[in-house]
Write a structure and sequence with these properties.
Layout: E1 2-5, E2 8-11, E3 15-16, E4 19-21, E5 28-30, E6 44-46
Antiparallel strand pairs: 1-2, 1-6, 3-4, 4-5
């Protein structure tokens, strides 16, 4: 959600159990009430559009064949008898 006041838009950072805090004057407001305006500064609360994140490609990892790489095996613990 965002709050807009005098053509300035700020994101609503504090939200807890259906209650939001205005980023302009720090007053709380229930989301279930009619009219989404701040009682203190009259900022308008609006839903922010959902932006789809671009898929991020993971860096390619080189595959190493440990059997062919002459790498000694890691030591293992002895099991208790």
């Amino acid at each position: 959600m965002n709050a807009t006041l005098n053509n300035e838009t700020r994101p609503i950072i504090r939200e807890h159990r259906g209650c939001i805090w205005c980023p302009f004057c720090d007053r709380s407001r229930q989301l279930s009430m009619d009219g989404l305006f701040c009682d203190g500064c009259r900022a308008e609360f609006t839903e922010s559009p959902v932006e789809e994140a671009a898929p991020v490609a993971a860096p390619a990892e080189e595959e190493v064949d440990l059997a062919a790489a002459d790498v000694p095996a890691t030591p293992r613990r002895r099991q208790a008898e």
